[in-house]
Amino acid sequence: MKKITLALALVAPLISLAQGTFTIKGTGAGFKNGDKIYLTYKADGKTKIDSAMVAGNSFHFTGNIAGITPASLYQNENPMVIEVAYNTIGFYIEPGDILFTATDSLKHAAISGTSTNRDLVAYTASLKTLQDRYIGLVNRFESLSADKQKDINEVADFRKNRQLVFTEMEPVKLGFIKTHPNSYISLVTVVDLMRSGAPIQQVAAAYAMLTPDVQNTPLGKKTATDIASRVKSTVNSMAVDFTLPDTKGKMIRLSDYKGKYVLVDFWASWCLPCRAENPNVILAYNKFKDKGFTVLGVSLDDAQTKKAWLKAIKDDGLKWAQVSDLKGWKNEAVLLYGVTSIPANLLIDPSGKIIARDVKDKVLLDKLSELLK
Length: 373
Known about the structure:
The protein is of the alpha+beta class. The protein folds into 3 domains: 19-117, Sandwich (Immunoglobulin-like), CATH 2.60.40; 128-232, no CATH class; 243-371, Glutaredoxin (3-Layer(aba) Sandwich), CATH 3.40.30.10. It has 12 helices and 15 strands. The chain has helices at residues 115-126, 128-142, 146-150, 152-179, 184-195, 200-209, 212-215, 218-232, 272-288, 306-316, 332-336, 361-371, and strands at 19-27, 36-43, 46-53, 58-66, 69-75, 88-93, 96-101, 110-112, 243-245, 251-253, 261-267, 293-299, 321-323, 344-348, 354-357. Strands 13-12-11-14-15 form a 5-stranded mixed beta sheet, with helices on one face. Strands 4-1-7-8 form a 4-stranded mixed beta sheet.
């Protein structure tokens, strides 16, 4: 498994607000003369990258931005060529002055300046103890041998303990949202709650705490839609039908699988955790395919990664039907079921009722063993 990091999910789309000038300044002994600092962020739907050299223990960026967008800085690590960043920091670009002060390195820099980044600092501080526990779990898992990291029992144990920490984080996150209803960080935290497996009713209640200004941003509106889709597809509800083309263009309907247990598996060729989970799905498929169980793969690949999708199916040995409209995160089924992170799945019974969501590794095998004795 690739290196896992727990940080605030800086993946939200740009909020469309008035255009304004931003400045980003870094200062302190942690920035050595001659260091190269890279900046990445999204604007106008495109990823922007810039760089600056440190001189006099300081660096500087400036530009124009509409609203708020997530961004990252990297110290001597070109984000376009590295797989894992070790000296990076996430923040938000918005109109105003943003300051980084570092005594040793960028990743430990103090952030100050704009209101969103002040909220980010407060939010991060409130979760520090639990985040440290999570990082300890990650470090333990990554210290295992490569074979152990692929062992289904080790993976299941890691995920179980990770979810326990996520559950402990929930009241902290909800408390932050309650006291910061007008903050963009609170909106991102609602999204984070949904991605980390919080009960959807709890997520909906958290969203309702946000002010109308926050709810009416593009991300706020999308989140409302995702929550509504997730509420309609909770466990014990009937699965809503969809039709998508397979790898050869043949239209496949979810309802074609009535009469069987079917795992609707959301994944993509570029998703490393999805690829790591594929052997477990294969194990379940091979063990139960003759007992009334099958899998329907739904890919979040797009037209640009179609060849990679087809290659991944072959390379990973996925024998079941694979469908995609090649629209990425705008995939019809993804929107229909409020999928906000992958790998994700739905387990549907022969009548078409959803009986589980996001069951993976040993948990999936145990669930199928219980159902298909």
